[in-house]
Amino acid sequence: MQFGAKWCLDSLWALLDSHTGGHIGYALTKEEARSFFRGCHRDVSVTWEVTPKGNFNVHLLGVGNVRAAVTSAGFDIVDTYGAFSISGLIPLPLQQRSQPGLFGRLAAVLIRCDRMLGRLYPFRAFAGNVFFVCRKHR
Q: How wide is the angle at C-alpha 85 spanned by C-alphas 82 and 91, nearest 5°?
């Protein structure tokens, strides 16, 4: 089971991009960005396509609602780990456009670091993706 974290480097890049004209390459709108900030701890629906050509809508859950959502789906959380926390220093569209350039090589090194550090609290909590290892209720 995988959830997108509301407060992560990738979402912060998308928020910045929504107010600077979309030059980085995210598709988050200004209204979605305002909604994101209006309820800091509430869930929010956003356009989460890395390129503006799509319309991929994602419902980002506030941290307090994730455990309740997993439990209500009939699962218990056994383990948690994060990914894309450090590699998020480089916006995802730049990582994708620059392969195998400088940003691509740097992102590859940072992704390897993410895999090692993803189980440690500060990195797990601020990851772009949070993965839950779950088991079905008995």
A: 135
* CA dist., res. 82 & res. 21, Å (int): 30
pLDDT digits (tens, 9 = 90+) for 85-96: 788 888 888 777
Alpha carbon distance, N-terminus to C-terminus of the chain: 18
Dihedral pair phi/psi, residue 87, rounded to 5°: -65, -20
As given in the structure block, the two tokens for residue 44 are 């929010």
Enumerate the domain spans of the chain. Answer: 2-132
Query: How far is the C-alpha of 33 from the C-alpha of 107, rounded, in Å?
Result: 26
131 token code pair: 């993965």
What letter would DSSP give residue 138?
Answer: -
Show the tokens assigned to 20.
């600077």
Q: What is the pLDDT of residues 51-101, one digit of tens each?
A: 555 566 777 777 667 788 888 889 998 887 777 778 888 888 877 776 677
- Residues 42 and 63: their CA atoms lie apart, in Å, by 8
**pLDDT over 70 (residue 1):** no
Determine the distance from the C-alpha atom of residue 105 to the mean position of all C-alpha atoms in its chain, rounded to a whole number: 21
